[in-house]
Amino acid sequence: MILEIRAVPPFMKNGFVLGCETTREGVLIDPGDDVDLLLAAVDQHSLEIGAILLTHAHLDHVTGVAAATRALEAPVWLHKADNVLYEAVVQQGLMFGLKVEPQPPVDHFYEEGHPLRFGRYEITVFHTPGHCPGGVCLAVNGDSRTDAPTELRTLIVGDTLFEGSIGRTDLPGGDLETLLRSIREVLFRFPDDSPVYSGHGAVTTIGRERRSNPFLR
Ligand SMILES: [Zn+2]
Ligand SMILES: [Zn+2]
């Protein structure tokens, strides 16, 4: 699987490009201020982007949606519980003293039991609230028709879980007990070797966080 990560100041939020090396189909995840770098990665790999997927609607994860839809003409996906937050992105910017442009409306809300595909990969969407009401984890599996064991269970977790830390719960709609339940009951069901790509910071694994994350003892 093609996997590119980009992050820029001030938020150093990770944006992702995932692509199928066979069909060149791909998805763009959480375009923020890094959107130009993500679009360059799309071009570099000659990918056709079929969807713009959002892990949640905090402004650092969505300020590049308008530019991404202009360039890619791909539909935007979000969990419906975060749509209020998404539509308030300009006000979110004001909270940080930032001028943010309004973003185009979401095209689709995630539906449980309806995986999204790009080439020979499949993304299952899990609702993982707590950091915000509509946070999701995108779990990418290699296609069972192919033999790609190293690509199994790649987790894109947004701001739910970080290397050695967890998402903040002091923003509107956040709740610590809900967040811990999402991590324990959704993320920790995945095997230890599952790579975890967080919304900020370094890549980790489920096993490493299960063993050593101080917030989950
Ligand atoms: Zn966030
Ligand atoms: Zn974030």
Q: Could you walk me through the main structural features you see in this protein, from its secondary elements to its overall organization?
A:
This protein has 217 residues and is an alpha/beta fold. It has one domain (2-216): Metallo-beta-lactamase, Chain A (4-Layer Sandwich). Helices cover 22% and strands 27% of the residues. The protein contains six helices and 14 strands. Strands 1-2-3-4-5-6 form a six-stranded mixed sheet, covered by helices on one side. It has a six-stranded mixed sheet with strand order 7-8-9-10-13-14. Strand 11 and strand 12 form a beta hairpin. It starts with a strand and ends in a 5-residue tail after the last helix. The structure holds zinc ion (2 copies). Residues 56, 58, 131, 159 line the site of one zinc ion.
